[in-house]
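Researcher: Here's the sequence for the chain we discussed earlier.
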Amino acid sequence: MTTPTPIVDERAWQLQEQALRAAHVRRDEPDAAALADRRLLRALREPPLSPLPADFAAGVARLAAPAAATRTVDTRLERLLGAVLGIALGAAALAQGLEQGAEWLRILAEQASPLPPGTLRLGVALAACVGCSWLIGLLPRRQARRSLRH
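Model: Thanks. This is the structure I predict for it:
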């Protein structure tokens, strides 16, 4: 059994904990990592110097829009490769079915058991429920189309 590797670097964690304790005690440490951790801790505790403007997100979107508009992605190659892959998979499935289809059907026929009594009635009832639900779902769409026409 393998032991999971720790996600956190233990040494870095200890340095951060020391910086946290040192910030409370207010003693200076010559270690550069501890000083960096203390600066980070102080920056996270204090609020930002100036709040972002109200239209900051809109400004960023305005700056990003021209770059996104000039960049067009040509997906013809991906569509072609997808079609080729689909045709290849279909041909492989057809070849496999032709080669071993009779064997599969024989195995399925051996494994199939006769349906218990009443199964046909339950299947018809299920199909009727699904069909009624589908038809009822069509009614609001038809009424919406009629209201748009008039």
